């Protein structure tokens, strides 16, 4: 059974820090064709749409469109702070390989 993606507390807390919800914005996680490995993630602030799956926590929202949802089943949306910078990341068990940039993957 495919489960929707999970969002970590850290990711919701970061959205709260930047005030996304108070501006009517959600973190959109989408999958598009392209990138070095066949698919790539698009992660941006966006207004929720009617057909989005909405994941809520800490008063914030993460949204996934219906087309991207199957590619993100059982994935984890997290926020990480590393030497190269702070960013939202996707841990995706469906990806058979990914590239070094962390935004591109294949299935």
TrEMBL record:
Q: Which GO terms describe its molecular function?
A: 2 iron, 2 sulfur cluster binding; 4 iron, 4 sulfur cluster binding; iron ion binding
Indicate the segments forming the Core domain, all copies: 6-102
User: Tell me, what is an example of a GO biological process annotation in this record?
Assistant: iron-sulfur cluster assembly
Database matches in PANTHER family = IRON-SULFUR CLUSTER ASSEMBLY 2 HOMOLOG, MITOCHONDRIAL
Q: This protein is called what?
A: Iron-sulfur cluster assembly accessory protein
Q: What organism does this protein naturally occur in? A: Shimia litoralis
